[in-house]
Amino acid sequence: MRRLLWLLGVLYVLYLMGGNVFLNSPLARTEVNRKPQIFHAQWAWAWTLWPGQIHAHGLQLHGQARQLLWSARGDAASGHIMLWPLLRHELRFGLVRTAAVSLDIRPTGIDLKPPPWRSDAWRITVDRVSTASLRQVRLGDLVADGEGEAELGFTHQLRGGSTAISPSHVLMPKARLHYRQMELLHDAKLDVHFSFDPFTHEELPGWQKLERAKIRVAAEGTTPAIALGADKAGALAVRLSPQGGHLNADFLLDHGTLAPGGHLQWNAPVAITDADGTQQQRHGQLDLAVQADAVMIDARIPPPPGTGNTTTPNQVDAHLQFASRQLLPQPSSGEALRLLSGMLEGRWHFASMRWLTPLTHSRPWLQMNGTGDIVGALRIEAGRLLPGSHVEVPQAVLVADLLDNVFTGSARAQARVVAGEDGARTTVDMIADRFTLAPRNAPGQAYLRGRALQVTLQSSADLASLGHNFIARLHFADADVPDLRAYNRYLPGKSLYFLQGNGRMSTEFTLDGNGDVSAGRMQMSSAAVRLALGVSRLAGQLKMDTRLHHATRDGHSFDLDGFTLALDGVRVEGSAAPPWWARIALQRGRLDWDRPMRVRGSATLVMKDVSLLLSLFADRSAFPTWITGMINDGQATAHAQIEAQRGDFILDHLVAHNERIDLLAHLHVSEGKPSGDLYARWGMLGLGVALADGKRRFHLLQARRWYQSQPDLIPAEATLTP
Question: Is the pLDDT of residue 338 over 80?
Answer without folding.
Answer: yes
